[in-house]
Write a structure and sequence with these properties.
73% helix, mainly alpha, 6 helices
């Protein structure tokens, strides 16, 4: 936590100007930016789940292979498969390296699936006067039916 606080203190001016630029952009373009951010966060949540599941599945398979291998009993080198839980961008930390490419393929597949199931489109907001007049006409229609 000290590293984060030190980083924030060292770069406080940059973050301040970044917020000064980002807030007006978000304010004026929120109709387009908020759905994109929600979509990106949704994919990130799915990928965290896939990464954690891959990490623990790889650990479980490596443990099973070590424990069920006769090479382990003979004292030979055992399997050391694994994936990094936090530094997921470090390709050398993946053993075997194919797991990294598997996760990339899953990322592409999830992105395509999310685009198919939840297509990105900007929603048009109705004006308040329009919705108010709809409520009034609906109320008149329900009174006339009584």
């Amino acid at each position: 936590m000290d590293i984060v606080i030190t980083h924030l203190q060292d770069n406080a001016i940059l973050y301040f100007f970044g917020v000064l630029v980002a807030v007006p952009v978000l304010f004026f373009f929120h109709r387009w930016l908020v759905p994109i951010l929600q979509w990106a966060i949704e994919i990130a949540i799915y990928m965290v789940g896939v990464h954690v599941a891959t990490h623990f599945t790889t650990a479980l398979v490596a443990w099973f292979r070590r424990e069920s291998s006769s090479e382990y009993l003979a004292g030979l080198e055992s399997v050391q498969w694994g994936t990094p839980l936090l530094k997921f961008w470090d390709i050398e930390a993946y053993d075997p390296v194919g797991i990294f490419y598997f996760e990339l393929a899953v990322l592409v597949g999830l992105t395509i699936l999310v685009l198919k199931i939840r297509p990105f489109k900007v929603q048009k907001s109705q004006s308040r006067a329009h919705t108010r007049s709809q409520r009034r006409s609906a109320a008149r229609g329900s009174r006339a039916r009584r």
